[in-house]
Design brief:
The chain is α+β, with helices and mostly antiparallel strands and 284 residues long. Helices cover 19% and strands 29% of the residues. A hairpin with a 3-residue loop joins strand 1 (2-6) and strand 2 (10-14). The longest helix is centred in the N-terminal third of the chain and has 22 residues, at 36-57. It is globular and about 60 Å long. Pfam families: FAA_hydrolase. Keywords: Hydrolase, Metal-binding. Residues 79-281 form the Fumarylacetoacetase-like C-terminal domain. It comes from Rhodococcus rhodochrous.
Length: 284
């Protein structure tokens, strides 16, 4: 199923007739609007049958007439995997790398980092660059949404804790500041346009994806090249951090990262999941 957040943070599901069916009534009435995705995920085992029947019935609104927002606007935690592709590691360091004077350590050493939840933005917004004299890069990633509390889970059972997947961009300021600072600025985590539930993704460890800027191919890879695969990331993080329903894990980016500037249009395509298009602007 394709789960959307739209208009005033209402919940919707794409029906078989292509319309968007409102399912906001399936979460408690007084849920804070930005928390509705979390509430839906927590209640999923009891409401999923009702959602399926509404998908089959259709008769909702045309998607062209709603404002599609980030499908998970307020997770408890937003985790990210640093340097999780070997070729990206190579392009960051070395004589021709971005950081020529540093040894670039991969995810097996750096493990992970946190991004500010307030960096999340949906297709209704834009990537806003706050400085005119600094380099900002695009990073194409697959986003994982956690389905239930995960504590010390094994690699073998880890995928049972995935609610769904979404295209995710990890926008990055290059420089000497701490990684979390450089990646946590407002609008630096675009996601969407929807969450595709895990049952619709045949093999998350073998997903093709690519990113273009103004139609030019910049990044193209497959999750099979991850140093720590999706199940491994969930398992490793859950050993020391209790993952919560609705938490997001950004899986890391492959080679091909490059600068973006105001006026660009960034498109991340994951054929098995979806496509996210984001304009780039100077911060007002």
């Amino acid at each position: 199923m394709k789960l959307y957040v739209y208009n005033d943070y209402r919940l919707g599901v794409e029906a078989t007739d292509g319309t968007l069916v409102d399912i906001t009534d399936l979460v408690p009435e007084h849920t804070e609007p930005r928390e509705r995705t979390n509430a839906l995920i927590r209640a999923w085992s009891t409401v999923s049958a009702d959602v399926s029947s509404r998908v089959a019935a259709g008769g909702g609104q045309a998607l062209d007439y709603v404002t599609v927002r980030a499908p998970q606007p307020q997770p408890r935690n937003l985790f990210a995997a640093p340097v999780n592709y070997h070729k990206h590691q190579q392009e960051m360091g070395g004589e021709k790398g971005v950081y020529t004077d540093r040894k670039i350590l991969d995810v097996s050493v750096r493990k992970g980092f946190l991004k500010a939840v307030t960096s999340i933005v949906g297709p209704d917004g834009a990537i806003e660059l706050p400085y005119e004299d600094r380099r900002f890069d695009h990073e194409a990633e697959v986003g994982i949404i956690i389905s239930k509390e995960a504590k010390q889970v094994s690699v073998e059972e880890a995928l049972d804790y995935v609610f769904g997947y979404t295209p995710l961009l990890d926008i990055t300021l290059r420089g000497d500041e701490d990684r979390s600072w450089r990646k946590s600025m407002d609008t630096f985590t675009p996601i969407g346009p929807y969450i595709l539930t895990a049952d619709e993704v045949e093999d998350p460890e073998n997903l093709d994806f690519w990113l273009t800027v103004n139609g030019e191919m910049r990044q193209k890879s497959n999750t099979s090249f991850l140093i720590w695969g999706i199940a491994k990331l969930i398992s490793e993080y859950s050993q020391v951090i209790t993952l919560q329903p609705g938490d997001i894990i950004a899986t890391g980016t492959p080679e091909g990262v490059a600068q973006i500037v105001p006026g660009d249009t960034v498109v991340l395509t994951i054929p098995a999941i979806g496509e996210l298009t984001m304009p780039v602007v100077a911060r007002p």
